[in-house]
Amino acid sequence: MEATITLRGTPEELRAMLPQLAGLEFDSATAVDETGWNSDLATDLIGELPPRTREIIEKVVAGLGQISTDDLRDTGSGTLRGRVGPIAKAMQRMERQGRLPEGLPRPVRATYAGEGKATSIEMPAGILPSFTDAIAKMATAGSEEVA
To answer: Which comes out higher in pLDDT, residue 53 or 1?
Structure first.
């Protein structure tokens, strides 16, 4: 059985619950948010990223869509230079390979207070559930490989 559920203007709480609800009703379900992202696409993208960039995605998801750049700078070399760019490059490569639909929004963006350094990295609320589910699936798969 295949079902497509489209949500527009849905409260974040319901959108976040959709993968769980769909999992109870169907053998296999992939929730696609209004941006076009789903957990399978998010998983593929995360798998294409270098570890330092993957860490940004993971920390933004853990921060429920936002992390201070000061927190990221503390975990690395002190600079964010070159850590977000690989996302766009991976997305372009995956689009060329037909593994990612064209026109998907980037999952994270830097925010600035005036000119200068970025103050935070944010993930739009509409994309967050897909990446949250992807990271959970990847963590589960990783723990199963260890076992």
So the answer is: 53
